[in-house]
Amino acid sequence: MATKRIGNKIRGWFSGEDISFAFIVSLAVPVIIDQFFLVSFNFINTAMISSSGAEAVSAVNMVGSLHYFMVQVFAAVGLGGTVVIAQYYGRRNFREMGKMAASTVFGCFCMALALTITFLVLRDPVLSLLFGKAEPTVMTNAKIYMTGLLLSYPMQAIVEGTNGSLRGIGRTKASLKLSLLMNAIYIAGNFLFVSQLGLGVRGLTYSLNISRFIAVFFAIYTLYANSGLLHIRRLYFRYPSYKKILHIIKISIPFATESLVFNGGKIIMQILIVSLGTQNIAANAIAVSWVQLSEIIPSALSTSLVPIVGQCIGRDNIRDARKLTKSFVLLGCLAFITVDLLLLPFFHVGMSLFNPPAGTVPLIFQIFIIYIFTHFLFWSISFILPAALRAAGDAKFTTAVSLLSMWIYRIGMGYLFGIYLGYGLLGLFTVTCSEWAIRGSIFYFRFRGSKWYANKLI
After folding, report:
1. Other beta carbons less than 10 A from residue 22's beta carbon
2. Which CB contacts under 8 angstroms, 24+ apart, belong to 144-148?
3. For 16-44, what is each residue's pLDDT tens digit?
4. What do you get for the CA distance between the two ends of the chain, in Å?
5. What's the whole-model pTM score?
């Protein structure tokens, strides 16, 4: 009887007037599974590349921060497509929804192609400018890895556009299958090229591009298989509407700007870490890989909330949007405290997979302890809550907040505590976590008002 009452309460928390509990579960669970495998693959990749030495780990981590900065340009188009498609779906305007789905795929590809060409030309000066203090071996590996990443972008963009369109209508199972296939091929390739053949960073680039190349064909098949639900016609691909592509890109500009600003700040933080030496770069890579395990469910909740709130806004149902956002934030907090405490007794077992540089394990453990407290208290309001604001069309506000908190507080205080006062990597991580509290508090007060859903995207 008690179990039944608890089950009814949970159903009540995660359902609304127009959205059922079954729909939310069918949308969120595949995203959680997708995020689990994505983080797990990154975890395994970091462990595998660690066998190639601290220089290889440092290079991958260094370029990884730049990669997250660049990839957000076309990933933002996919997110913008998700928001617009979700709102059209909520209004049952299926014809426009189909055109927007095709435009999302085209928009992602065009942005990625431009990005690839630009940064292939600027690769060496960009790396020298950002990470010129890195050791020569680290820099050589960084150039190889960055080239491989750039070549994969146009292919990955097609997958991003497809997944963004599918998530807009709640077809997360289809996007899950596509992501799992792509990343399973990637991890298998890394096992072959890195672990077995010992090709190091070069092996990572081989498996990356092979997996993205195969995924493109499955993305095209997935679009065809779901063309009825997406209301996509072949005509939309033969004769793309450049007006609608530009519309999607225009809507995506705040998403892209926020991601670029935020990840640009992460690059500055990475530059600070590079100045601390190769061992600190490797320690940072391992710490981030470890703490990301507890971010799987909350990150998936953030992604899932976008189409849910988008559909609520499309129906002008603000009550459902508010209720479900609160429920998702609360669930994110509970997920953090549960998973972080479960990971705690397995810390040293996990570290044995990474072959960490001597003497860095205590530092990584201290970072993990900081995350245990701050994850639970601040992460959800800092990352899940703004997903609802963006889905409602309030991306300009979230962008402004992210810009100010990142560049004024995180970078300024990070330099003060991490470099000037000599607290090093521990100081940088402490500042990062405290920045979540500031940014999350601002988003919370915005959410309590009515301005966040006043903007109209369609």
Report:
1. 11
2. 144/59, 144/201, 144/202, 144/205, 145/59, 145/60, 145/63, 145/201, 145/204, 145/205, 146/63, 146/66, 146/67, 146/119, 147/120, 147/123, 147/205, 148/202, 148/204, 148/205, 148/206, 148/208, 148/209
3. 787 888 888 887 888 787 777 766 666 66
4. 46
5. 0.75
